[in-house]
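S.,

Sequence below, as promised.
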Amino acid sequence: MHDDRRERTIPESSLIIEYLHQHYPGPAPLLPDDADLALQVRLWDRFYDLHVNEPMQKIVTDRRRPAGRNDPYGVEQAKARLYTAYAIIDEHIATRIWAIGDDFSMADCAAAPALYYADKVMPFGDGYRSMAGYFQRLMQRPSYARALEEAQPYLKLFPGEEKSTAA
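The prediction came back faster than expected:
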């Protein structure tokens, strides 16, 4: 994102959200003003990027490799990391509506695409009911539903599995 008024370029989505929150606050903030809650939002934003997105991308990358160039051990490790992340999310979200509580935040913005694609490569199944419920709430948010609808022509290019809980 480039801000002509302030002559600044902000290159990453989490930083863009923080920048907009600081310089152009809107009616529905994605970061709470409370410093402790804001820290929790940042923690879960990073959690979804590092512990869901990263191993999911390892699995996807492996599926796109030429025949005979796969990394079964790396994929096995990535799946183990995803199972660990699923268990942590399932426990964390069991008593919450959104990632940090009652208010939708930047952490939920990170969770939505991470969980969408993770479910494609390693479906949640019945073992993670709280996380699956959270994922359904994310999918039902009008802004996310619109983003998925607009992405439909491109989603067929994703090398995920046919069956998922999002279907």
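The chain has six helices and two strands.

Coffee later?
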